[in-house]
Amino acid sequence: METGNPGLKDTRTWGVIATWQMALSGTAQAGEILNGGGGAGDAVEALIRQVEACPEYTSVGYGGLPNREGVVELDAAYMDGDSLAQGAVAGIRQVRHPVSVARSLSARHANSFLVGDGAGRYARDGGFEMADMLTDRARNTWQDRLKGTEGGAAAPYDGHDTVGALALDGAGSMAAATSTSGLFMKDPGRVGDSPLPGSGFYADSQAGAAAATGLGEDIMKGCLSYEIVRRMREGADPQEACDRAVYPFVETLRRRYGKVGEISLIAIDPVGRFGVATNVDFTFCLAEPDRPASVFSAAPDGQGGTRFQTVRSDSDE
């Protein structure tokens, strides 16, 4: 059944939105936290930890597909919309929940974005759970890809399913968080948009929040999360901000760069309205006081806007 934007009907006391259908259970958990009076930061962290822990999701956390050397390198970020504090990790290895490490780093004024061995050392010293993040399934997928190249270089896989989460709590505070294993068969050390503030995520409780998923190298060219928040600060509703930031930029990249990868953005404003824009078929999850955690699909309407369709709700299970 086709619907209009599911987030522009009225105002809410709280709300949460996340990228991709894989976030449905986490969105339900986040909704329970917010409905019980919990904070936006706790909600987005719990949502993403749920996705990170599931081995069935091959683009995030445990079970994430590795780089071309067979190593799972993870990126994650967290931002507090009240203080604008940010924390991030990139290329971190053998850490069960990178998003929690990122949130811990957001308490620092300096040294709040750590990469590689430094990020791993911080996690170990801080008592975060360490684990081998390469599952047998992911290892087999990697080995099959290597065999398929017959000794040549394996190109990165085209899927880029970062989990991003945005929340507004009953006190009016907002938070954003992201987590990903990045491109399958990526070069060791490659970092996409997900841990980069302004590109992969941004949150300002006085203006709104946004998060991205897709080909990070292209999302970074437009700093799209910040651009959407900037437009909301200037008075645009979330859907208008998403449409006006994403679709013209997609066309700009086609014209000036010659091609464009997958780009999808979600947004929420300080009164709980939602927005989404995408250049592919894209699923997202949301929950609010009058709606259980639900999955919607979005796609470009071909006229500079976005069309929506209901997929399922948590109550369907």
UniProtKB/TrEMBL annotation:
Compositional bias per record (Polar residues), positions renumbered to this chain: 306-317
Region of interest (Disordered), ranges: 296-317
Cross-referenced Gene3D superfamilies: (Glycosyl)asparaginase
- PANTHER family in UniProt: L-ASPARAGINASE, N(4)-(BETA-N-ACETYLGLUCOSAMINYL)-L-ASPARAGINASE
Name by which UniProt lists this protein: N(4)-(Beta-N-acetylglucosaminyl)-L-asparaginase
What organism is the protein native to? Bifidobacterium favimelis
At the highest ranks, the source species' classification is:
Bacteria, Bacillati, Actinomycetota, Actinomycetes, Bifidobacteriales
